[in-house]
């Protein structure tokens, strides 16, 4: 299989089949031809996992026992996300790339076979389901050991287009309800491969946090006739003291009730439901603020900050009139050599307690000299 698709900003997507029939998608800006075949031996793909309901809180839990054997912190010379060179046959057959997206070889969620439906919730008697969905890996750059902040503005623009493209395509699957692109960085977060990359999870159900955000947004709309997230952004613009960076199209701020020592929300000033709604102007202005935010985060203590950077957007089929797109970056680093552990109150009770005021962390981020 070899297919091409023209995207915006001169970006071309080329699709190829991997040796085990997974798909790899190359996102390029220089008209590269992608013809190298994956010459690795075929490996059997894991079967779909289980989906079980925790009736105490009515939350779905995916069982993916096959992930116990996945790669864990390999040395650079064995990194599966580097380009293929010499005898090192990796997930990317080409000797170089810009941005690539491929189906995860150890997915938590995978496409179902035939018709699929989420089991009806009836407490402890809820039927066992299958962990339907899609998990993809997105590599930001071929250079091992680099980070998001090391990308060029053009590469960030290509990355954004890949996120948009995957959101658009995954939304077309009937069993997909929510799409969440995210990046984990740092061993403190649990990263298992030290290569600049992220993941895209496409869920067959609405994740718990999204359910809570949707409920709050609906309640606010019913009571006020307004959009909750728009009101939040208006408050941040009015207060000013928690704003970290901004340009004509985007705003970055520490939220009023931040839960982490360093937490930044980045949102388009032209509110949209999901990544596909971003205008051409929004897309072109994103690299500037994205790189500034990441450089400020690493500049606070002069060390690389472990973080989770996740896109929050409206579900595929519901809440699109009340939910707003934003990029949430959270770090558990509270000082050099010190982490905020999510212990008893946070992990057991879900009740966060902050050791520093959001205005303080916003000030530290603004004071970083770029």
Short descriptors:
alpha+beta; HIT family, subunit A; three-stranded antiparallel β-sheet; 370 residues
Question: What does the model show?
Answer:
With 370 residues, the chain is of the alpha+beta class. It folds into 2 domains: 2-205, HIT-like (HIT family, subunit A), CATH 3.30.428; 210-367, 2-Layer Sandwich (HIT family, subunit A). Helices cover 22% and strands 24% of the residues. The protein has 6 helices and 17 strands. The strands form 3 sheets. The protein has a 12-stranded antiparallel sheet, with helices on both faces. Strands 5-4-7 form a 3-stranded antiparallel sheet, with no helix packed on it. It has a two-stranded antiparallel ribbon with strand order 16-17. A hairpin with a 5-residue loop joins strand 1 (2-6) and strand 2. Helix 1 (153-170) crosses helix 4 (280-299). The mean pLDDT is 95.
């Amino acid at each position: 299989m070899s297919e091409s698709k023209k995207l915006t900003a001169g970006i071309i997507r080329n699709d190829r089949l991997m040796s085990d029939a997974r798909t790899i998608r190359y996102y390029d800006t220089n008209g590269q031809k992608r013809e190298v075949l994956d010459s690795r031996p075929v490996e059997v793909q894991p079967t779909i996992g289980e989906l079980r309901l925790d009736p105490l809180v009515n939350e779905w839990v995916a069982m993916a026992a096959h992930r116990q054997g996945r790669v864990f912190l390999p040395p650079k010379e064995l990194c599966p996300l580097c380009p293929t060179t010499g005898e090192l046959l990796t997930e990317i057959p080409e000797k170089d790339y810009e941005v690539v997206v491929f189906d995860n070889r150890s997915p938590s969620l995978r496409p179902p076979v035939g018709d699929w439906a989420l089991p009806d919730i009836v407490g402890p008697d809820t039927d066992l389901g299958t962990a339907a969905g899609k998990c993809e890996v997105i590599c930001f750059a071929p250079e091992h050991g680099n980070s998001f902040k090391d990308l060029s503005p053009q590469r960030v623009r290509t990355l954004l287009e890949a996120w948009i493209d995957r959101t658009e395509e995954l939304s077309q699957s009937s069993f997909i309800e929510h799409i969440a692109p995210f990046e984990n960085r740092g061993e403190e977060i649990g990263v298992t491969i030290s290569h600049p990359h992220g993941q895209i999870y496409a869920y067959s159900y609405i994740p718990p946090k999204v359910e809570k955000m949707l409920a709050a947004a609906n309640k606010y709309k019913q009571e006020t006739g307004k959009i909750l997230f728009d009101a939040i952004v208006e408050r941040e613009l009015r207060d000013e003291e928690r704003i970290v960076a901004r340009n004509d199209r985007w705003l970055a701020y520490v939220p009023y009730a931040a839960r982490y020592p360093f937490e930044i929300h980045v949102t388009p000033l032209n509110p949209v439901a999901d990544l596909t709604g971003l205008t051409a102007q929004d897309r072109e202005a994103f690299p500037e603020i994205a790189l500034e935010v990441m450089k400020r985060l690493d500049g606070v203590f002069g060390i690389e900050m472990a973080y989770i950077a996740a896109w929050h957007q409206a579900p595929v089929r519901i809440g699109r009139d009340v939910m707003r797109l934003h990029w949430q970056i959270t770090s558990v680093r509270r000082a050099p050599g010190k982490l905020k552990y999510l212990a008893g109150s946070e992990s057991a009770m879900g009740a966060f307690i902050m050791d520093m005021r959001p205005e303080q962390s916003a000030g530290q981020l603004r004071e970083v000299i770029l």
